[in-house]
Batch of 2 targets.
Target 1
Amino acid sequence: MMRDPAWHPSFPDVGSAAGRCKSSRTGNEAGERSRGTKIEPGRPPRYIAHMTSATPAPLGAKLPILMPPHPSLRARTRRVAPSDMDQVRALLPDMFATMYAAPGIGLAAPQVGVGLRFAVIDLMPDETPAPMVLINPEVIRVSEDWAVREEGCLSLPGQYADVTRPARVAVRYQDADFATHEIEAEGLLAACLQHEIDHLDGVLFVDHLSALKRNMLLRKLAKERKQMAAQIAPQTAQG
Ligand SMILES: [Zn+2]
C-alpha cells in the first residue's frame, strides 16, 4: 500500500510480545476502540493489534516495483516452506528498502517479481519504524461489519479509491524466524493486511471496485505511464 499522511492514525504503544490482540491504551478513544465497536466508514483509522514480529531490518537494495499488466501481479504465490527461508531472509532487506524508498506502508513479494507467499508492512506509528514480516499470512476470521478506506498501491502509483473490506480481521502468519503468530487488527492495519494478502492471491485493490471504476483507474495509470515515458525518453536519449 502507498503511504498517505491522511491515513496516519494516532497509534497506541506497542504492547507485550505475547502475540495476542491488545486494546489500545491511547487516551480518550480507548473506550470507542473496545472489541465489538462498529467502525463507521470514514472514521479515522485505528488499530488494536501490536506487532510481535517487528524485526529491525538492515537496509538493502531498492528493487523495481512491477505494475500491471505484469503477470507476477496476477499469479497466486506458493507457500513459503522452511527450505525457502534462506531466500526469503535474503530478500527481506531489499523488500524493506524498496517499500521505505517508495514510500509505502506495505509491499508483497509478487510486486517485486517473487512468487512466494510473504509480504512486509510498516505503518510507521509516530514516524517510528515498526517493520513487520508476514510469511504465509492468511485471514482466519473477519468481522461482520465493514469499513471503507481510501487505498493506493505501489504497483498502481498515483491511483486511489475507496475500498470496502471487513473492518476487523484475525491473521495467522509466520515471522522471519518462521514462528507462528496470530493477530487481530482493525483500522489501517486491518486494511493493510488484507491488501497485502490479496497481492499474494493475485488480487489488486482495484478488483474490489466496479468494473467501470477499475478500468478507469487502470486506463489512467497506463496513460500517465505513457506520458512519463515520453517525458523521460528525450532526456535519456541525450544522456
Ligand atoms: Zn498494493
Target 2
Amino acid sequence: MGVQISPSAQTEMKSTKQRGEKIFILEALKKFGQIGSIFPSSKYLAKSIAECIPNKEDVVVVELGAGTGTITKEILKKISITSSLIACEKNKKMAEFLKNEIHDPRLLVIEGDAISMQKVITSLGHHKADCVVSGIPLGTLKKYEQDMLLLTIKELLKNDGVYVQFQYFLSTFLNIKRYFKSVKIKKYVLRNLPPAFVYKCQK
Ligand SMILES: C[S@@+](CC[C@H](N)C(=O)[O-])C[C@H]1O[C@@H](n2cnc3c(N)ncnc32)[C@H](O)[C@@H]1O
C-alpha cells in the first residue's frame, strides 16, 4: 500500500519547493559564477545521481554544493535509516533554507566551503566517506581551484568509495581523469535545465 499524503501536506511541499526555487534563481542571478546554473536540478537528475550511491547499510555520504536540496532529498530517500548525509553549501541563503526546510536526523547541513570538508567530517568522527556527491560547477572554476577540489574529494573518499559529479559539459572530464582511475558517464539527463551528464568515478 502506498503512503498517503494529505492535500494540506501536498500544498506545503509545493510551497517549500517554490520558495527553494525562488531563492535559487535570485542567488544565481547575483552569483552566477559560484552557482553555475539558473535553476535547481530536476527530480530526474536528482534520481539518477541518487542511483549511483552504493547499496550498503550505514553509508556516510557527503554532498558538496547542496543548493536548495533537490538532490539532498533524493539522497535521503536512497540511504538507510542508520546512514548519514553531510551536506555542504557555501551560499548563506541556501544553507539557511536547507537547515530550515529539511528535517531529518540523518542530515547535517554545513554552511561553508567544500574545501574544508575533510576537517569537518573528521571532527564528526567519520574518517572517510562512502560517497561524495558534487553539484559544484567545476567548469566555472580556475584550473588550480578545480585541482584543489578534486584532491579534497579524493582525500574524503574511502578506497572503494564513489564520487558522483554532475556537469553540463564534458570539458572537465580529462581533469577528473587525472585524479580518478575510473571515470564513467552513467547518464545524460535530458529532463534537466540544462541537460546534464552524471559522472561516476572511483579512485
Ligand atoms: C549547480 S548548483 C547545484 C545545486 C543543487 N545541488 C542542485 O542540484 O540543485 C551548485 C551549488 O554549489 C554551490 N557551491 C559552489 N562552490 C562551492 C564550494 N566551494 N563549496 C560549497 N558549495 C559550493 C553553489 O552555491 C550552488 O548552490
